[in-house]
């Protein structure tokens, strides 16, 4: 049973998660802005490099006491994070902000599917149903008149698969290590990979316009450093179900920012597809058993009183 104080703490945590989700929803807009003057890996290097420095400065005492195991796990997770962000950042060059937001939210339904494939954990019926709805939504959102999906949409979906992989690997690796230190190392590794790839394939440089600096600093401070710290703090005081449901609002925020700031709209079938993807994600995340069990419990209690 949750007392008043515990409920108040959870509500605050849920509100913090909502703010983090809104920040991450804005990241697609800022990435699109940054890509106007920066190449993909250059953008990634700056975003995560600055975020690593800021988060490291806040939690410097934790970094000083870092263990090799934590660093090694951070290396693994940071590499996967680099793959996630690379796919999304490159994909954004060829698709819309709204498409990217809704397609990336599919990571929620990819998690149970990957668990079923690699760990033989049978997905629940609600997940299968949610996936079915989401697939119809993907078709409506992305298929053009020639029944083709563009390369940008493919890359965003690939990024969602990578992110689902990261969620599973994170769950396996965060046992018995400091999660905040692990997250900071993850940011640094992603930034280091971005710098390496930028040096090899691009000509890295600092942003040359005010708009580019705004996008980089927003991505670094708001979407990465504050987003990471906020998530780490909030998840200590709320449930995984609440977290998943709140995070499912990310594509809604992404579409909202795209409409407000760049006037981006979708065709009618695109909006229907986006809504179906959102419904599919929520269905996959919702816990339908608890309310039913509570109802049965109350009925049983009434029966015993009679």
Automatic annotation (TrEMBL):
Record carries keyword Manganese: no
Pfam families to which the protein is assigned, alphabetical: EamA (PF00892)
Source superkingdom: Bacteria
TM regions (residue ranges): 15-35, 41-59, 71-94, 100-120, 127-148, 154-170, 182-201, 213-233, 245-262, 268-288
Annotated GO CC locations: plasma membrane
Keywords: Cell membrane, Membrane, Transmembrane, Transmembrane helix
UniProt-annotated location(s): Cell membrane
Membrane topology: Multi-pass membrane protein
Predominant subcellular localization, coarse grouping: membrane
Domain EamA stretches: 12-142, 151-283
Family: Belongs to the EamA transporter family.
Protein name: DMT family transporter
Organism this protein belongs to: Psychrobacillus lasiicapitis
């Amino acid at each position: 049973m949750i007392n008043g104080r515990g409920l108040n703490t959870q509500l605050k945590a849920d509100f913090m998660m909502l703010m983090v989700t809104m920040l991450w929803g804005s990241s697609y807009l800022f990435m699109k802005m940054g890509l106007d003057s920066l190449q993909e890996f250059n953008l990634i290097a700056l975003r995560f490099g600055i975020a690593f420095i800021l988060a490291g400065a806040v939690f410097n005492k934790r970094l000083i006491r870092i263990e090799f195991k934590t660093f090694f796990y951070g290396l693994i997770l940071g590499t996967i994070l680099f793959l996630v962000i690379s796919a999304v950042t490159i994909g954004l060059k060829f698709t819309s902000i709204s498409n990217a937001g809704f397609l990336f939210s599919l990571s929620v339904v990819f998690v149970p599917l990957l668990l079923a494939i690699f760990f033989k954990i049978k997905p629940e019926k609600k997940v299968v149903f949610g996936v079915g709805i989401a697939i119809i939504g993907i078709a409506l959102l992305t298929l053009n008149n020639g029944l083709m999906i563009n390369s940008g949409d493919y890359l965003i979906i690939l990024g969602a698969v990578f992110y689902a992989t990261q969620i599973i690997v994170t769950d396996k690796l965060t046992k018995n290590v400091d999660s905040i230190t692990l997250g900071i190392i993850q940011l640094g590794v992603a930034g280091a990979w971005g710098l390496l790839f930028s040096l090899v394939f691009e000509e890295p440089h600092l942003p040359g316009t005010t708009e580019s600096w705004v996008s980089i600093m927003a991505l670094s401070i708001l979407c990465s450093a504050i987003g990471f710290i906020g998530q780490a703090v909030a998840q200590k005081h709320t449930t995984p179900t609440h977290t998943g449901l709140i995070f499912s609002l990310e594509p809604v925020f992404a579409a909202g920012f795209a409409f407000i700031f760049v006037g981006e709209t979708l065709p009618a079938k695109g909006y229907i597809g986006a809504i179906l993807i959102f419904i599919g994600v929520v269905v996959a995340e919702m816990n339908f058993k608890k309310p039913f069990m509570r109802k049965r419990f109350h009925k049983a209690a009434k029966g015993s009183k009679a």
